[in-house]
């Protein structure tokens, strides 16, 4: 038995859903406007997760061209039944629920099968030869809440009308319904309170999948909404999973504030896991007195492995990196030695798919360095929250010379800070981050020049709004401009993160 540390997957991987299959565990998360869609993870122990791909890898599976920031793919659910994996989700921009399937978890997934039921956050329950489709929306009689129909899983056709089966426990923004048949009860778990500081997990149970459902008397079963000062907040949107030792866990989302007394978060909603205990009365309880902590004990895990430092050589462009909406692939040449990006007129502050390829920021304390050689136009590294909020450390051709600048974009306020003139047309760009700030540097000929520092709160979710987290992106703008990136190194200092957790971690 070891003690594992939350989050089990750091960075912008919200709305986790998990299933067990063939001695392994598989997890999916929301991706919103980023492509490929729905990151897919595998684990042998529920603690150490490896991303093995994405579910939505083709534009025919998901329409993203016209989605706004934080639009697109919401809240996927993954389930396994009779040798087949199913992933059901919503393209919220177009208000369509659909699912895809595969018989090979390492291969391609099917084209989408659409389901004519309203709402978001869909889920599936395979039970006693029937398939139930749940979402939170409005049923066929106009009643709102958790709604359900029986489904023909081969065609997506409804076999029954959609019916409201639960109104939640009375809090606002009922969402994320999942149903489980455990013993004599059907447990219906959901999120309420909004995916913010009031987020929580609630549940009810019944002896029939159509109800009537009785609320857990101590709802919410899990929340950190009254746990302050505390770094972990926003706990909610969970999925139940049983491990090979028979123990139950809730895998859920949460976020880390940048400081105990600063209510901003930049890394997005991350993946947390808390233990669950069933009582003799059939009700289950979660966490420590219904709250999520940084550390728990778990059976069957040898050790918890933290993510490695990141280089071009140890990442896979098809797995670890993501684009904004559907990319023009001809503008990207990606290899283990480096990335070459070809610019277009589209800028990072404009809607569409600029030449941009990014990684999710995985920790507060980060050091990034990359070499850049530029032909024309502009290229660099962006601390990217969305079109209106991002910080760009970039190189640009200015007349007969090249310069390196920092641009701060915070809503309509755009400022270009210190401009450093280069001796040549290549430079080493550096970003240092802690839990409060980002600092920008350029290095040329062994000399490091500071270019400015910006507060992390202006690229936080509280300022940028929406549902995503910071992406660290390489980009190029300008017609036919070529930006060659080499020698990427990103280092995270997890020891410093542990120091900021707070006294009651």
If you had to describe this structure to a student in words, what would you say it looks like?
Helices cover 2% and strands 50% of the residues. A seven-stranded antiparallel beta sheet has the order 25-26-37-28-33-34-35, with no helix packed on it. A six-stranded antiparallel beta sheet has the order 27-36-29-30-31-32, with no helix packed on it. Strands 2-3-5-6 form a four-stranded antiparallel beta sheet, with no helix packed on it. The chain folds into two domains: 297 residues, Glycosyl hydrolase domain, family 43 (Tachylectin-2, Chain A, 5 Propeller); 175 residues, Jelly Rolls (Sandwich). By secondary structure, it is mainly beta. It has two helices and 37 strands.
Structural class: mainly beta
Corresponding CATH superfamily of the largest domain:
Glycosyl hydrolase domain, family 43
Walk across the major sheet and give the strand order.
25-26-37-28-33-34-35
Mean pLDDT: 95
> How many helices does DSSP assign?
2
Specify Rg, calculated over alpha carbons.
Answer: 23 Å
Query: Can you count the beta strands?
Result: 37
What is the end-to-end distance?
Answer: 19 Å
CATH architecture of the largest domain: 5 Propeller
Quaternary structure annotation: single chain
Question: What is the beta-strand fraction?
Answer: over 45%
Shape: globular
Number of domain modules: 2
Please give the CATH class of the largest domain.
Answer: Mainly Beta
Helix content: under 10%
Unreliable stretches (pLDDT < 50, length at least 5) are none
The largest β sheet comes out as: 7 strands, antiparallel
- According to CATH, what is the topology of the largest domain? Tachylectin-2, Chain A
């Amino acid at each position: 038995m070891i003690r594992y540390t939350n989050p089990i997957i750091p960075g912008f991987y919200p709305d986790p859903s998990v299933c067990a299959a063939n001695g392994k565990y598989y997890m999916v998360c929301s991706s919103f406007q980023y492509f490929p869609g729905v990151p897919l993870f595998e684990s042998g122990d529920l603690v150490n997760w490896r991303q093995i791909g994405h579910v939505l890898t083709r534009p025919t599976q998901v329409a993203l061209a016209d989605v706004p920031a934080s639009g697109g793919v919401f809240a996927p659910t993954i389930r396994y039944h009779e040798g087949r994996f199913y992933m059901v989700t919503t393209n919220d921009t177009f208000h369509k629920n659909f699912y895809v399937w595969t018989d090979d978890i390492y291969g391609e997934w099917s084209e989408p099968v659409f389901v004519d039921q309203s709402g978001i956050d869909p889920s599936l329950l395979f039970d006693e030869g029937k398939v139930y489709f749940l979402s939170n929306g409005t049923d066929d009689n106009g009643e709102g809440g958790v709604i359900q129909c029986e489904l023909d899983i081969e065609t997506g056709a409804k076999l029954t009308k959609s019916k409201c089966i639960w109104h939640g426990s009375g809090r606002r923004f009922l969402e994320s319904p999942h149903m489980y048949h455990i013993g004599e009860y059907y447990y219906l778990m959901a999120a309420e309170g909004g995916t913010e500081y009031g987020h929580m997990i609630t549940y009810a149970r019944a002896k029939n999948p159509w109800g009537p459902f009785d609320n857990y008397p101590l709802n919410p079963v899990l929340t950190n909404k009254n746990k302050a000062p505390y770094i972990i907040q926003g706990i909610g949107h969970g999925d139940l999973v049983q491990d090979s030792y028979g123990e139950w866990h809730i895998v859920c989302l949460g976020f880390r504030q940048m400081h105990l007394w600063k209510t901003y978060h930049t890394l997005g909603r991350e993946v947390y896991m808390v233990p669950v205990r069933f009582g003799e009365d059939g009700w289950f309880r979660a966490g420590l007195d219904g709250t999520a902590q940084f550390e728990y004990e778990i059976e069957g895990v040898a050790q918890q492995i933290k993510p490695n430092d990141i280089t071009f050589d140890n990442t896979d462009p098809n797995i670890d990196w993501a684009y904004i909406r559907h990319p023009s692939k001809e503008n990207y040449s990606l290899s283990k030695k480096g990335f070459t990006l070809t610019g277009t007129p589209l800028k990072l502050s404009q809607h569409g798919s600029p030449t941009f390829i990014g990684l999710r920021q995985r920790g507060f304390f980060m050091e990034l360095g990359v070499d850049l050689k530029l032909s024309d136009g502009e290229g660099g590294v962006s601390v990217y929250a969305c079109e209106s909020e991002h910080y760009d450390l970039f190189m640009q051709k200015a007349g007969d010379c090249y310069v390196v600048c920092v641009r701060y974009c915070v809503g309509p306020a755009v400022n270009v800070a210190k401009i450093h003139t280069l001796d040549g047309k290549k430079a080493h760009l550096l970003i240092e981050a802690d839990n409060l700030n980002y600092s920008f540097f350029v290095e040329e000929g062994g000399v490091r020049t500071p270019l400015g520092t910006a507060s992390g709160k202006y690229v936080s979710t509280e300022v940028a709004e929406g549902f995503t987290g910071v992406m660290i992106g390489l980009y190029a703008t300008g017609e036919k401009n070529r930006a060659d990136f080499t020698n990427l190194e990103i280092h995270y200092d997890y020891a410093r993160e542990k120091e900021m957790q707070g006294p009651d971690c």
